[in-house]
Amino acid sequence: MMAALLLSGGMDSVSIAWWKRPTISIFVDYGQKPAQAEEAAGRAAAEAMGLRYEVVRADCSALGSGDLAGRPASAVAPASEWWPFRNQLILTLAGTAALQFGETELMIGALRTDGHHADGRPEFIEKISSLMEMQEGGLRVSAPAIGYSAPELVEVSQIPQSVLAWAHSCHTGNLACGQCRGCVKHFETWEALGWTPH
Which EC numbers characterise this protein's activity in its record (predicted)? Predict the structure, then answer.
């Protein structure tokens, strides 16, 4: 099976890259505020692992809301970083690229603790996979870490601290703000592992 990974440059996808060693990693710049740092982080991590790294660009910034778009959160947002249909959007864009590269599976870094977003739940993964599989190309979507928290994933993946240090977790921009939910998760994960946060 040929498996691609949606590599956002964050801790979860970088850990999955180390753990699952996909045939290709795909970064999607959809117009999010931290895109430049995420792309650089993903590229550095992929190079450290010897993984092929591809970039897809589609500026959807006009459609975004919340921290990732640099705008106030929508009234229906479950969290400050929520962007409408974000995982559906980026899976569609990455999936299109994955098919061009002959892949049959696309992995995403959803965790057990991502359930506060509807598109981070197992039901979403199952439904989006069914939707993409029934179309031409038959691309399957999987979330290999859906049963883990971030610290559990890092431990299972056995990723070295030196490689995980490349990850960029901030939702608000290219420099870590230290206050958004992404930065807090990054700090708490490293603290749970007994590592010194960077």
Answer: 6.3.4.20
Q: Answer left, alpha or beta for residue 31, where phi above 0 means left and psi between -120 and 50 means alpha.
A: left
pLDDT at 2: 81
Could you report the per-residue pLDDT of 64-76, keeping only the tens digit for each? 999 999 999 999 9
125-150 core/surface letters (b: 16 or more CB in 10 A; e: else): beebbeebeeeeeebbbbbbbbebbb
Helix axes 181-192, 11-20, angle to 10 degrees: 50
Answer whether 0.85 is exceeded by the pTM.
yes
State the CB neighbour count (10 A cutoff) for residue 32.
24
- Strand ranges for the chain from DSSP E: 3-6, 24-29, 53-57, 105-107, 140-142
Q: Tell the burial category of 113 from Cβ atoms under 10 Å away from its Cβ (0-12, 13-18, 19+).
A: middle
> Which residues in the chain land under pLDDT 70?
1, 197-198
Residue in 96, 94, 89, 123 with CA at minimum distance from that of residue 107? 94
H-state helical runs in 54-165: 86-100, 122-133, 150-157, 161-164
Which residue in 26, 82, 100, 106 sits closest to 58, CA to CA?
Answer: 26
Q: Which residues contact 59 (CB under 8 A, 6 or more apart)?
A: 29, 30, 31
